[in-house]
Design a protein that fits this description.
By secondary structure, the protein is an alpha+beta fold. The protein has a domain of 51 residues. The protein has three helices and five strands, in the order H-H-E-E-E-E-H-E. The chain has a three-stranded antiparallel sheet, covered by helices on one side. A two-stranded antiparallel ribbon has the order 2-3. The longest helix is centred in the first third of the chain and has 9 residues.
């Protein structure tokens, strides 16, 4: 846990998450999904923010009203965290 998260007990959860995972920009989408013309399921509404995500965006995300993806790099080019998805291939049917 970062020093910012440990030394700010009076901050809200959204503010502490913002401090930890702020990044320099973000993408977001509303949880409502629908199938497009190709049959793929996609979010109905997608947002792209070119500034760091605010505590308000994190509040909406924590409340389940907004999916939020953060670009981890900061203005100095460093990333305070990293994430990778591990996907397994489907097993062939016998």
């Amino acid at each position: 846990m970062s020093d910012a998260a440990q030394t700010t007990p009076n901050k809200s959860l959204a503010e502490r998450i913002c401090d930890l995972f702020g990044g320099d920009r973000a993408n977001g989408y509303k949880p409502e999904m629908r199938k497009d013309d190709s049959g793929k399921t996609r979010p109905v509404e997608v947002h792209r923010w070119t500034k760091p995500p605010s505590p308000e965006l994190w509040r909406q995300h924590l409340a389940g009203k907004l999916g939020l993806g953060v670009y981890a790099t900061r203005e100095d080019g460093l990333a305070p965290f990293g994430h990778a998805d591990r996907r397994t291939a489907a097993k062939p049917r016998s």
